[in-house]
Each structure stands twice: as C-alpha cells, then as structure tokens.
Design goal:
alpha+beta, 60s Ribosomal Protein L30, Chain: A, two-stranded antiparallel ribbon, 2 helices, 28% strand, globular
Length: 136
Amino acid sequence: MAAEIKIANPPALGRPLGPYSHVARVKAAEFVFIAGQVAVDRDGNVIGIGDFEAQCRQAFANLAAALASVGAGWGNIAQFTTYLVHSQDIGKFAAYRAREFPQLFPNGAYPPNTLLIVDRLVNEALLVEVQAIAAL
C-alpha cells in the first residue's frame, strides 16, 4: 500500500502564514520518524558556520538522504518541525522555503510545519534543525 497524504487548509483556520499547510491526513502502511537534521556532513563537521542559508541547504540535504535511505522522497513527508536559534532568522527561513519548496513539492501541497525558537542546538554553531515524519 502506498501512502496517501492529503494536505488541507480548512477555511476556519485561515490562510497559512508561509509555505506550509495546516493539516495532513495520512493513510499509510508505515511511518518514518526522522530525527532533527542539522548542518553537519557525514564526518560530523559543521557546514556553514555563521551562514544560515548554507545551514538550511545542508539540513535539507541531510533530510533528503534520510528519506532516500528508506526509499522515500519529499512527497512522503507528512510533517516538519523546525527549530531556529534566533528569531531574527524567521524571515530567512521563510525566504528559503518560499524559494526551495516549489521544487521539492511541485504540486504545491506543503506539509504542516511547526516552527520553534530555542535557546541553542546540540552544537552552539548550529542555527537550524529540521525534523520530519514521513509516510510510506
């Protein structure tokens, strides 16, 4: 059974404030929970110290690798949770998603995303972390 993910934005909730949706209804045989991915390479080196854009690219590249490892792709994502260290990076993250998500989700059905501002991540040089739930 292939996963069936229906993305919705109920009128009662209003329009999303960015490239995400309010609801994902999922029928799946299996779920994949992907730990928060940060800007580290396969050797554990931080990529893009001080460069939010570079860190986003690496975090999403790591998510892509995690998805591929289970035979999944962006269309299998049911939900994201994003952690930022600085509230000043909210606009940068929104701009990154507005530019990149149309390629990752060409049908325009963007998964729900919860955005949290945290004090710090596992390594002080890290600025962004993205966790995902996928359905197979």
